[in-house]
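Tutorial sheet, problem 5. The two components below are modelled jointly, 685 residues in total.
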Amino acid sequence: MRKKYNPFRMQTLQKQTCRMAVTLFLLVALTSGISAQDADAILERVDRNMASDSRIMESSMTIRGKRSSRTVTSKSWGEGTNRAFTEYLSPAAERGTKMLKLEGQLWIYSPSTDRTIQISGHMLKQSVMGSDLSYEDMMDDRKLSEVYAATLSGEEMIDGRKTRVLVLTARVPDVPYHSQKLWIDAERYIPLKQEMYAKSGQLLKRTVMSDVRQVQGRWFPFVMIYKDMLKQGDGTEFKITSISFNEKIPEYLFSKAALKQ
Amino acid sequence: MIRFLIKGLLRDKSRSRLPIIVVAIGVMLTVWMHAYITGFMGDTIEMNARFSNGHVKVMTRAYAEELDQIPNDLAILGSAELMNTLQSKFPDMAWAERIQFGGLIDVPDEQGETRGQGPALGLGIDLLSGNNSEADRLNLRRSLVRGELPKNSREVLLSDNFSVKLGVQPGDEVTLIGSTMEGSMAMFNFTVSGTLSFGVDIMDRGTIIADISDVRQALQMEDAAGEIIGFFGNGFYDNENALHTAATFNALYAASDDEYAPVMKALSEQGTMGTYVMMSKYWGTYISMVFVFAMSLVLWNAGLLGGLRRYGEVGVRIAMGEEKGHVYMTMLYESVVIGIAGSVVGTALGLFFAWLVQKYGISIEGMMQGASVMMPDTIRARITPPDFYIGFIPGLLSTVLGTALSGIGIFKRQTARLFAELQT
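Model answer (structure tokens):
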């Protein structure tokens, strides 16, 4: 039997549909707001672990090239995000090479030439000591929460640990990577995996962090494997041999004169 | 009869002077153009061979795949041993190790701070072993503008334009900032010993040349070489021979699956040079043929006109009872004499002008601004054996053919009509 047209029933149906749409919209808006809020909070907690007022670190960097592998050791001193000094200790060919980062400028001193050269422009894209890291990567020590907007995209397990996956999109123009994907340890707030993308969406670099230890009340990864996806070879293993945070660093280290000493 | 015809030609200038001049000009242009095209094509190939490609080049397979990027991280290791192998297997060829590299040349001020900086394309060659073959091959002595060739370690040559841009003089110190074989930053101090002008825009922009041992030290490439290049004993590229040599060498390593095993490539197998070699092989022939054909048409036309101009004279001779066949043959003989005389004079003139262009060249510097292919900015002709006979094709054959065609009219002329024509 065919139903009769009822104008009052139609009105009620329209009202119900409108109410449902508004509710759905509010729900989505609220959820995404919470998601962004969560993501920003997670990123800030990551920054609290990774960033510090000052940092003194000794490390070894094993560069696994296509034909050979070699290890470079160094000691570095960093203060805030704008000042850093690194001295290479071995092998013999690199010993005495020093790098100074000062207010957005990078200087390199080569003992064999007794010259201090500023690294700028396209040279910043070059590899550091043949590794999978570029000078640009070294230069950018800013807190992630300052330069990227984060959204939470889900949860995944990495090596048996629950991680939250954040998608970061640059909110400032002067970042080396337009977007990043971070897998954050849900308990320790340390990235366990990081992927860096170009604006085109091409994966440029991948970093896998492990050997997470607690140092001076914060969690910190002691092994990082960097892989430049556009470069041949098996990546660069960066191992921290010692690290201390928030120590007083002599002021003279952050001067060009210190490079030649 | 030939002597009689020659006397006639000499005494009647209207029958000899202009036709010989026309034939001589046509032949001269043909000879000159052929020598010019041969010179231009050959120069470009030899220049690329000497500076970059060699007649054959040996590299690792991995390096060969990315040849355009000059990937020194994929260079030949143990290059001295490979040099010995090449010298024993191919003793008639000259072999040289080379390292091509890119980097920056940084010029310090009194405080050691950067005063000037510019991108450089570097070449590491044997300059200090006492064997001058590489310096001679690149014509370095004649290219010197200021200073002298490196005599000691850590001395470098800069292209003159580059040195002017950086404001450096012979004796000044510069720092090479490059990339080691391992990929880390390389810094190496050189003293500028001299400046060069190659006359090739792409080379004059920012070339540096240093002894290969210094480059090895700078780029941490001990007993390594980016490439080993080989040259035929006669100094000229022979594509067939180069391909055969490469195939013979590559057969030695055919069983190896090592991506760093050496591979030999003939010049025509390297990048765009293959197209150029093919182009020079066929293009030169096509251009010469088109020109020979065009000149043949001109001279054929001149022969036709010459025959037609003598329409009245031929009529009188026939009216006087001379046989048509005899008239026709004498005209052909005359055209042979004119063709030979014009071709000889034209070939001599063409060779003379070609020699001038071979010796002094024609500057095309203005056209070479910003060129990305290594081409000489002065084009020089090259006189080769075909230049001595190529002019006879249009000079002799076309003139005779033109006369033969115009002379056909002789057999078509009717005696009755002939008298009517002669009366008017």
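Marking note: The radius of gyration of chain B is 31 Å. Full credit if you identified this.
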